[in-house]
Amino acid sequence: MNDPALDPSQLAEQLEILRRKVETLEAQNVRRAARSSGLKKGLLAAALVLVVSNVAWGQLKTFVAGSPALASDINGNFTQLKTWLEQKVGTSGSADVTVTGLFSTPTASVSGPVYRGASVPATGDLGLYSEVGANWVRFVTNSGDFHFFTDGSAGNGFAGTTDAFAVLANGNAVVRGDLVVNGNATSGAWLAQTSKSPADGNALSAGGTPNSGWAAAQCASGQFVCGLAFTHPTGQNLLYDESFAIRCCSL
Q: What residue segments make up the domains of the chain, in order of their start?
């Protein structure tokens, strides 16, 4: 600027260049301040509505042009994002997915078993459910027995808190009410825990020696029960082509 070789016109040109540079820098500073203020206001508003695992996005550090980005702020952002992600899907680096909150989905397609975990509430034995080809269902339990309640909740079933139906580990089925069979019932033995009605007779005691233990097993003291005893030479009780006798328990 003090170069004696410059004439007044050249000095004026240099001054104009410097003036324009100063105006440009001042304008940039004004826009930067306005942009920084607007960005901060926008992030503050977003932090009020965006929530991940009940934690606002406002915990993340934000950066604007011309401001220094500290390594600690960047690392802190990654740490916070990692925490939120692990709350949703489980430990980082693991192939398993763990949901610590409520899992809600309209439909789910599962190729493997669905099993009970320690965190499942209000279930004594949820067990394992498996379905193949939509034609059979398998349950595996820890205790071995399955109990079914008529209202779908453990505690209020048939006759108070008694289950309406149970499948035991040995394959036996227990029905608390009446058993209605619309089709044919074949194979196996039928066992009655109470005295038979006169119409039932001894037809339910299939197998073994006919009528063996019938009076003792089916007639309690003070009861008088009569029924038809269908006798088969081989020890099987059938309802056709066989002789029969009317048997009554003693009073």
A: 8-89, 124-180, 185-251
